Amino acid sequence: MEVRENFNLKAFNTFGIDCYSKYFSTFESVDELKSLLEKFPNEKLLILGGGSNILFTERNFDGLVLYNQIKGFDIIDESDGFVSVKSGGGESWHQFVMKCLEQNYGGVENLSFIPGSVGASPMQNIGAYGVEIKDIFEKLEAFHIKTKEIHTFNKDKCEFAYRESVFKRKLKGQYIILNVTYRLTKKHHSLKTDYGAIKDELKKQNINSPTIQDISRVVISIRESKLPNPKEIGNAGSFFKNPIVSTDILVELQKHYAHVPNYPVSNDKVKLAAGWLIEKAGWKGKVFGNYGVHKKQALVLVNYGGAKGNDIYSLSEQIIQDIQEKFGVTLEREVNIL
Ligand SMILES: Cc1cc2nc3c(=O)[nH]c(=O)nc-3n(C[C@H](O)[C@H](O)[C@H](O)COP(=O)(O)OP(=O)(O)OC[C@H]3O[C@@H](n4cnc5c(N)ncnc54)[C@H](O)[C@@H]3O)c2cc1C
Fold it and tell me: In the annotation, is 238 catalytic?
């Protein structure tokens, strides 16, 4: 549990931004976490998982970065059809998914290949290809920074919504997620193959009765073909959320763009595709020196190497303003800005 000083976080954020933290330490247990917090009672904190959903906009982080390395993959309950798996928050999300699939535990397959840690997975209720973690979530244990108590959160207490949870809103900065328990199927898996790209890829590969492992493989190949690999081009996946707007806004948009993609959310609300709006506004593939908007996916802002976080943030500001002016739609960032 070595505490490093003036530590470069470049390798610890998928945008690959240079940012120096005053202090940096890993923790592998609650005891280690407690002793670090005792040693640095007044420092500003940043809990870091895989750094795949953050953008550093300052040259320095003036505080203590706590890198979560709590491990574990334990079956805590099991019946004929279901299994409850408790994973340490410091496990890699994708490795967790792979371990579940090796055991033929279903429910996580559509969420294959999402970067980051298990501990961060509830933060924004990660989701992909028609599945969100709230669909399989059972409970989590989190460390309350102020009282040093460990609290258990069930699904209701997490207040999950689209890319949201109570930990991003009301309880922001108050808890460190130690472990998460997911309830998965052992048989009669409920496959989610409706998503267009999955359906097309299964068809292309002549798979008529897919297994959960097939779905995972297909999801991985779709993701590899569509999204830039952060090891090659710095990015944090979708920079913006898909906006949820009133049907009145949709009707107005349809006057100018008859085929605007939209997905019903409720009687009077629809979800629009932020990537479509950004592409229509002409931003897709735009390069500004060493940063820009990805050429294949307009939702993804990229660092081609050496960009400053602040430049990427300013680009996101310009995009938000432009989308507001052109379409009357307010985009919200998905990425956590620091
Ligand atoms: C190429 C790419 C593709 C992506 N695709 C998707 C996708 O399909 N769907 C999706 O939902 N997301 C996606 N993301 C975003 C990202 O992978 C997820 O949000 C992921 O859950 C972030 O995990 P992390 O460990 O990297 O979190 P970090 O970036 O380290 O942290 C994110 C936030 O959570 C906080 N945090 C992290 N761990 C803890 C903890 N244990 N306790 C309390 N707070 C904590 C941090 O302080 C920070 O505020 C993608 C990112 C990339 C780079």
Answer: yes
Mutate to test the pocket of ligand 1, among 44, 67, 114, 220 (most ligand atoms within 8 A of CB): 114
pTM value surpassing 0.90: yes
For the Cβ of 114 lying below 6 angstroms from any atom of ligand 1, the answer is yes
* pLDDT at residue 54 greater than cutoff 80: yes
- Alpha carbon of 118 to ligand 1 centroid (Å): 9
Residue extent(s) of CATH 3.30.465.10 domains in the chain: 73-226
Q: Residue 134 has which token pair?
A: 């709230």
Domain 73-226 indexed as CATH 3.30.465.10: yes
Helix extents (H) in the chain: 30-39, 93-102, 155-158, 196-204, 212-226, 247-256, 274-280, 309-327
Is the shortest distance between the CB of 122 and ligand 1 below 6 Å? Answer: no
Burial status of residue 281 (CB atoms within 10 A of its CB: 0-12, 13-18, 19 or more): middle
Cα 178 from Cα 153, distance rounded (Å) = 11
- The ranges of the chain annotated as CATH 3.30.43.10 are 4-68
User: What pLDDT was estimated at residue 196?
Assistant: 75
pLDDT computed for residue 242 by the predictor: 96
Closest residue to atom 53 of ligand 1, CA basis: 236
Question: Worst-scoring range by mean pLDDT, 252-266, 272-286, 297-311?
Answer: 252-266
Q: Could you tell me which CATH class the domain 234-337 is placed in?
A: alpha beta
Query: Does 3.40.50.720 match the CATH number of domain 4-68?
Result: no
- Would the CB of 177 count as within 6 Å of ligand 1? yes
Say whether 59 is catalytic.
Answer: no
- Of these residues, 163, 216, 217, 316, which one is catalytic? 163
Closest approach atom of ligand 1 to CA 89:
41
CB 222 within 8 A of CB 205: no
Residues spanned by CATH 3.90.78.10 within the chain?
A: 234-337
- The answer to whether the Cα torsion of 105, 111, 112, 118 is positive or negative is negative
Which residue's CA is minimally distant from atom 52 of ligand 1? 237
Q: Is 128 in the pocket of ligand 1 (CB under 6 A)?
A: yes
